[in-house]
Specification:
It contains 2 helices and no strands. With about 90 residues, it is mainly alpha-helical.
């Protein structure tokens, strides 16, 4: 394309393809980040307390309803983040 002249149809098509590709990659990156945070929250908020309760250590979380409710809340937050990431992928073009 020369300066001042309108872009050719082929250049418009290439620019549109690049724009769509960039959009898709950004969407996948954001969805992946949400899923990675969900995995970390599930591991730290749900799995680690289960492991900690399995061993008689002084640093283990106390057994009780508060620990159980906290574990469930972290698991639900992780599932919500994971589903949000999956929903973002619906925006791929």
């Amino acid at each position: 394309m020369t300066s001042g002249s309108p872009p050719s149809p082929a250049e418009d098509t290439d620019a549109l393809k690049r724009h769509i590709l960039v959009h898709n990659e950004k969407t996948k990156l954001t969805a992946s980040a949400a899923n990675n945070i969900a995995i970390a929250l599930f591991g730290g908020g749900f799995l680690l307390p289960i492991i900690g309760l399995s061993f008689p250590l002084s640093s283990a979380p106390p057994e009780g309803q508060v620990t159980l409710i906290t574990m469930i809340v972290w698991a639900l937050v992780a599932v919500a983040l994971h589903n949000w990431g999956r929903t973002m992928l619906d925006g791929l073009r």
